[in-house]
Structures are given as C-alpha cells and as structure tokens.
Write a structure and sequence with these properties.
This protein is an alpha/beta fold and 572 residues long. It folds into four domains: 147 residues, DNA polymerase, domain 1, CATH 1.10.150; 90 residues, Beta Polymerase, domain 2; 73 residues, DNA polymerase, thumb domain (Beta Polymerase, domain 3, 2-Layer Sandwich); 236 residues, TIM Barrel (Alpha-Beta Barrel). It contains 24 helices and 17 strands. The strands form four sheets. It has a seven-stranded parallel sheet with strand order 11-12-13-14-15-16-17. The protein has a five-stranded mixed sheet with strand order 2-4-7-6-5, sandwiched between helices. α8 packs across α9 and α13 packs across α15. The longest helix has 17 residues.
Length: 572
Amino acid sequence: MPADNAEIAKLFNRYADLLEIQDANPFRVRAYRNAARVVAGSSRGMSELLAEGRDLDELPGIGKDLAKKIEVIVQTGILPQLEQLQKQVPRSLSDLMGLPGLGPKRVKLLFRELKIRSFEDLKRAARSGKLGALPGFGAKTVARILASLENHSPGPQRIKLAEAEHIATPLLAYLRKISGVKCVDVAGSYRRRRDTVGDLDIVVIAGRETPVMARFVKYDAVTSVLSKGVTRSTVQLRDGMQVDLRLMPEISYGAALYYFTGSKAHNIAVRKLAVAKGLKINEYGVYRGPRRIAGRSEQELFAAIGLPYIPPELREARGEIEAARAGKLPDLISLADIHGDLHTHTDATDGHDTLAAMIEAGRARGYEYLAITDHSRHVSVAHGLDVKQLLAQIHAIDKLNDKLKDFQVLKGTEVDILEDGSLDLPDSVLKRLDVVVAALHYDLGLPASKQTARILRAFDNRHMHILAHPTTRLINIRAEIAADMDKIYAAAAKSGVAMEINANPDRLDLDDIHARAAHQAGCKLVISTDTHTTGGLDAMRFGIDQARRAWLEAGDVLNTLPCNRLLKALAR
C-alpha cells in the first residue's frame, strides 16, 4: 500500500522540525515545510500521479530532489534522510514543538541543558522549577507550558478530517472492487463531517458469501487484525487509525448507515421518539413488534417515525429533532452555492503559484470572482508586501481585470492586526482594496481581556471587511486564543465585519460551534480557503462541511452572492 499524502507531509514536517532544532539552513527547512503543505493540500494522491507517469517536479515548489524523495516515501513509507537524522536528534523533540511557546530554539535548549526529550520530562522540569531557571522561560511561559501539558492527551489523537479522507479514499476504492460488494460507505463522525475523526466505521452491503472480510484484513496498510468475524472485523492501519467494517444485508442498508453514523446522543433521542410510537430501531431496521417496517434507506427510516430526513451533519442532538418536528430544518448550504473565494495567496508572498495561475484555477472551478489577499509587511516570515509592493499588485490586477470577461479578480490583502489593534497598512492603501481580510499572527498569548480589546479596536477601522481564522487555532497543534468570542461576535454584527470560516484543513476556523454562535449573534459569514496553491482551492468543501454543521444556509454566507452584490454586502 503506497504512502498517502498525509503520511508524506508528516514525514517532511518532522524532518523540517528536526532540521530546525539542528539550526540547519532556514531555506532548506522552508523547502520541506512548503513541500509538506503542497502535498497535504493536493486534491490528487502522489501515488496516483506517479502511477500515471507524472513528473512530480511539476508541482509548485517541488524540485527534482524533493520529487525523488516523495517517490521513495510512496514506495517504501520512509524518508531515509529522516531515519539518519533521528540518530542524532530524538524524534520526540519534534512532538514537543507542537506545544505553544516551544519553537526549535527552545526545544534545543531544553534538550541540551536539561536532557528533556518527552512530555513527561518537560512536566517534571516545569514542576520542579528547573524549567524556570533557563533563560527565556519566565513564570508566564512556564505556566502556559504546564497548562498545555495538562491538556495534552498521551493516547491516540483524533486526526484531521482531510487526513481521514486520504486514509479512507483508497480503502473504499479497494473494498468496492471486491466481488459481490454493492455499497460501501463510511459512517461515524467522518460522515457527520466533524473537524476531527477518531476511527473509521465502514458499512458494506453485500451477501455473506462475498470474500469482503478476508480481503479487508489483508489490505496492505493493515498492521494488526484486532478481530475478524463473519459480519464484523476490526483492524489497525499503519498510521494508527482503527477501522471497523460491518457487513449488512441490502434490506438494512439505511438503518445500518443511520445507526453507525450517530451521534450517540442523536440516536438515543430518536430511539425515544420511536419507543413513544411503539417502535424499535436498531442497525437492521425499524420494527413494530417482530415485523420490520423500514430500514432499506435512511429516508424510509425517518418517515417511519414521522420525521423528515435529517442530514448527517446535523445529527448532534443540538435541536435538530425539534426543528424537524416543527418543519424548520435549514436548507443547508452546498459547494455549488459558492461564487468565489475571498482569501487566497500567490507567490508574491508565501504562496506557490502565480497570480495568473490562481486566476485560471478559480475560473476552472466555475467561480465568478477570486480575491487575492497576500500578506501585509508585518508577516516577515511570509515576505509580506509593503505599501509599494501592494500598490504594484493593485495596478497589475486592474490591468488584468480590463482583459478578463465574466470573471473579476478582487484586490485584497491579509493585513495583520497589531498588538494595539491597529492594522498593518495605512488607510490610504486599504481604501483602494475590494477585500480587506484582517488576522492575528503574533502576540497570540495575550490575556483574554487584552486580546478581545485588540480585536474590537481593529473593528473600528471601517476598511476592514473580514476577520480571518478568528480563533487562530491549528487543529492538534495550537489551541484557540483566549478571548471573549461572544463579545467579538456582537461587535462584528454591529459594525458589519464578517467572520471567516477558514476552510484550510489545518484550521477549520471558525468551527461549527463558533460559526453557529456567530450566525445567531447576527454576524455576516464568509467561507474561504486561505490557500497558498491552486490545488488548495478544493479545500472549500471542508469549510462547507463546517457551515453545514453550523446550520448555515446559502443566504447566510456572503460569497454565495454574485460579485456586485458581494461588494455591496462587504461595504461598511
């Protein structure tokens, strides 16, 4: 089984971590980080591209050397250079870098001075006072590290939805090729499109004579078979993911898919409704006494208990049953409703593709517009644009728009919100832009009161249109900022600043809970990819997933509007 994109990106990122700890050339480190981002953001598997005979060095930021390394990883599952480096630098140090406030320099200091190489080592050093004795580790820093350690789970970590997709897609393709298999679907939190997935629950419809169980446990990525039976088997894959496979008869397809999709709280609430009607629901169907009356489809199941179909994304026991009974379920937004992307980057800063390539990619997806929002000057690590450079980009976009038909390139920026709440670019420049996306990238550890006040002050600038990735979280890496989000949503609704659902699979920020709260507070919302590659535009679907889980309809999201109406809606 060839390595998937998530595995390749993980190896490149780990290698970059250890190189940083070694004080390697920063350009070399950046090359591996960029390669990891390109691979993880690709809509096509690297193994697929290689099987088609494609040259991987055609990918943005991937030279011949990195292309060869990707090929080796696909074929062997390892990066030999990383294996060598881990003999000099413990790989566990890379895990420590995932904690807030621990960059490569600090991790290197911890290893050199205190021989810290694990979370437990770090916890002991923090509690004993040894950590606070090191230069740069003040009381606040140590307290923040301890708080992060308390929240750190030593067990298996839920993985990002996009990574779960990379694991599930080839497995589903493998199962569908088995003789006698009629349907294969992933249920569970994956089907509900939660931002993270713990394991995969797969439902297969086939006759019992099919060899699906025997073939399932022999899948190339399986490292251990936890159980094997006639109708259920459980395996663990080499990336640690556990997969349960259940073989069901066709007459029970809807009931099984419903039952194993969950959530548990939703299922319990629906079963109570069924019991009140004298019915029983299980994975085989809906029963009145011994007689099965429904279960072939989910629609049939819901109808049997007097409810309209409830989409999987809403099945969280958050009022969806009450809304269904009252005929008030939302008409959920879909990917087809999106007219354009309002947060994208080019190679003018830290993107990988040219302005022309990004425009062509937007048009290829049927968009009507695309906002180019390269970083402002404060984000030096991303080579942010200064005033002169941004003005030149504005001029270039104006010239392009004069030539384009049926497509509009929106002039924008991702401008930094500085610690005092001011924006990183002068109003004289901001007022010339169609879309001003403002974001926090630095000073993320401020106390909640200061962080909240900082964001509210930024809202006072009438040229700001969108607050990007509002909580700044990075899934499984960085927690949300400390801030009063309810106060921020109320102020945004009053001032007309839109909240972003950032569709980048590493962020998904706002998540479903925050997005629903923002909507209920009266906020405008947008869904954008924050992509740094042309392929990254495809991540829009992950933002749609969060929006659907937040009960949003097309009319709740600004970039479902045509361009002229969008610009009016953004204006404050």
